[in-house]
Structures are given as structure tokens and as C-alpha cells.
Write a structure and sequence with these properties.
Helix content is about 50%, strand content about 15%. The protein is of the alpha/beta class. The chain has two domains: about 5-190 and about 350-375, Rossmann fold (3-Layer(aba) Sandwich), CATH 3.40.50; about 200-335, 3-Layer(aba) Sandwich (Rossmann fold). A six-stranded parallel beta sheet has the order 2-1-3-4-5-6, sandwiched between helices. A six-stranded parallel beta sheet has the order 9-8-7-10-11-12, with helices on both faces. About 45% of the residues are buried.
Length: about 375
Amino acid sequence: MTSSETRILFVLPALADPPSRGYEVRAANLADGLRKRFAVELMTADGRPPGQYARHRKVEGLGRAIISVSRNWPLQAALFDGPKIADRALEAAAAWSPQVAIVVTERLPYTTIALSRRFPVILDVVDSMALHMSQRASRASPLIRWLWKLEAHRFERLAARLADEVSAVVAASTTARDQYPRAIVIPNATSLRKRERPAPQYDLIFTGNLWYWPNVEAVRIICDVIVPLVRERLPEARVLIAGREPTAAVRNLCRKASVVLMANVPDLGELLASSQIAIAPIEWTPGANLKILDALAVGTPVLTFGAAASQLPDLTPGLIACKDAEEMARIATAILLGERRPIPPGVVSTWSDRSDSLAAIIDDIRERNSAVRTQAPS
């Protein structure tokens, strides 16, 4: 079978059109890169059209939650997966008969195990869910902290089972290796390119999914701390927050701070290119942050916190790590007033590069399986 005849199937918890969540963006771009060599399809585990999972999971989710608890598996898995969903995923996959299936995130344990009994499976954990749940626990109120800690523990237990079931594990960062020591790191990248930069429309910009808790917290820091400090010297500073599905809290914060809010913008690249500085006061991120990579790719310098900067190569051109919001505001103000010149952003890795790394893993799995078939007694 030639590479062009090799079928690769991505299976995701959810898939919006266009992709919005980080794991959706990652999977869609990796899939596009693989299409240079393979036939590639993407599907949700339950086979439903994008956007419909939220409605049916409310009806079926209670039963799946009971099953997950009985197995000591994470409740998160019940949001997107379950035995019936795994059966549907297996039926859909069998109809297409892929040579390799790529399951995206740890949120699909039933589906991952079911598919691995029939096909070689690569598990792209993207980010460690155990680490994510631990971070939620550290920021939660005492009333629900125990639940996040329990979820973290369950994902830790689940990781060992999943690692034994699949042919390979990949991740976006080395942070996943606490749970998956043999994970192959394929870092995040960007699909954007440097473009002609129009006259600046905004001085500061922040982008991201505006329902995701680290981004909601970042908006709070921007509106409550950074914007007031910048406007002490630049009263007319133009600040933009753009992203998908802003929460009511985000809308209220932007309104009170007189910050422009744009929801569900189709081309964030254009807005990034027309902004002088991208700010990303992210206090926690388990891997290279997409918003930072996208801004650097179009030539916009980025100010971020050390937690996010540490996920990128040292001395990344165009990236300035700030110790806190006050320092970020001071540096941003100095740049906007011409008192400081940022280093121009350099070349940022593309998803095409990352897809080549994934293709090499696929080739290795196919070669190993071929060798096993050749050695098998007739």
C-alpha cells in the first residue's frame, strides 16, 4: 500500500467549524499537513455534526458519569465519551478502515481502548489532563477543590492504562511526560505567516477562547490592572480583546474598562497584524500557547508571563517575559511611547513542520506492523 492509499483517521471529542478549541486547531492543522502524503479524515467520537455534542451529552451524560465513577475514571470522560459512543466510533472507523487512528486528548478513554483493539492508535494527549485538573484545584474554592483533585488523580491512573493500550503517545509539551514518560513531543505551531502590516488600529491586543478559564483570568488582569496603568500615561490607548464565545464576566470586564471586545472573529491574523503589541498575561499554560505563536508569526511582538514564555525556546525573538501585570503595563507603555524598542519577531515553526514529525511516527508504526505480519507463521 502506497502512502497516498494509507488512511489516517483523527477522532476528537468535539469539532467546531471552524475549529475553535486548542486541540481542534491542533488536530485540524496536523491533518492538513498529513494530506500531502495520506488520505485523512476527521470525526467526532460520537459521529455527530459539529456543535451537537452539547445537547445530547446532557441527556446521556448522567448514565456515562455513573459508569465512569464505577470504573474510577474521570468524570470529564463522561462529557464526551462512554461505551455507546465508543461503539459508534468503532463502527464509523471500521467503515473507513484506517491504517492508523489518532485519538485527540485523554477525554475519550472508552473510544481509545475500543479503537486500539482493532487499529493501531496514536494518542495525542495534547496537554496533560492530570496537570490541568491540578491547576484547577489550586485555584478552586475549598467547596469544590476536592473534586478537581479527585479528577487529577483519576487522570493519573487512567494515563497508565491508555499508554499500555496504544501504539504511540504524542503531546504538545514535555509537561505531559509526568504521566506519559515515553510521549513524543510535537509542539504547537501556527498556520499564520508574516503579512503586510497596515497602519495600527489597536495598541494592545489579547486573543483566545474567551470561555476558557486561563483566558478569562487574563482578561480580568488586563481590564483591572494593565489597562488602567497604561492609560495613566496614554489615556487614549486602544485596547482590543478578540476571541470566541466570551462569557458574561468577560463582557462586563471589557465594558467597565472601555476595552473593545470582538466575538467570533473569522480572521484573528488580520487583527494581530494591525495591533502594535500582543499581550498574554497567562498565569498557566501546559504548552506553547497558540495566541503567542500566531502573534509572533504575523510580526507582532508579545508580552507574556514567565509561565507561558517558559514553554517556548529561550530568547525567542519578539517575546518579552514579564514578572507580573505591573511590569507588563510598564513595558507596554514604554514601547508605545517609543521609549523602548522590542526585538522584531523571527520565524515561527509551522504546522507543516509538525505534521512531518507525526508522519514519521505513522511510518514507524506501519513498518513495525508490517514486520510483525511478515514474521507471523502462515
